[in-house]
Amino acid sequence: RYVYRYSEQNSPLSRNIENRDVGDACVFLASNLSSGVTGEVHYVDGGMKIVGIPKPVTS
Question: Which residue blocks in 1-58 are alpha helix, DSSP H?
């Protein structure tokens, strides 16, 4: 639970990614809307790839 709360508080979207988020990305990639997408890596991580995981502040 600590990791879940910690990632939620430190995520740029201020929420955790759910199964639905990953499924929506898969549906997009399988649809005609992604016909121009080739050779890309898509991170469904709420922006954590960009900012990284902050280190906890210790006293």
Answer: 2-10, 19-30, 48-51
Superfamily, domain 2-51: Enoyl acyl carrier protein reductase (1.10.8.400)
Rounded-to-integer distance, Cα 4 and Cα 8, Å: 6
Judge whether residue 19 has pLDDT over 80. Answer: yes
Contact 29, 42 (CB under 8 A): yes
pLDDT of residue 18: 95
- The domain ranges of the chain are 2-51
12 in Cβ contact with 51 (< 8 Å): yes
pTM: 0.74
